[in-house]
Write a structure and sequence with these properties.
about 130 residues, alpha/beta, 5 helices, 5 strands, disordered C terminus
Amino acid sequence: MGETVWFVGAGPGDPDLITVKGQSLLEDADVLIYAGSLVNPALIARSGAKTKLDSWGMDLEELVRVMESAVKSGKKVVRLHSGDPSLYGAIVEQIEELERGESLSGSSPGCHRSFPQRLRLVYNLHYVVFLRA
């Protein structure tokens, strides 16, 4: 799984809601690039990456350059996004640039932040409709 940039969804903020695959990729990463203001610091601390970079202030060109350089030197790169990275346009731009440079990318979707609220709503409706009736 070297020579790949993995886009991992950090989930809705609770570090325990990251997917099992996402957690595994995070633990095994050599290089972690994350959005510091959007990702729970507990997830960053869980990463086994020797290189951890906050992407705040980095433009697309710089992000891709850092990811490609790490991939070309055989490192496993994890790009940690908030929520589910497949729901945001920035991931598309990054993947397109990586593919132009012939770098591979993979994705481990996260839980969108609205998912826990939907579960709570369903539970509350179930409680009101069925248990209190």
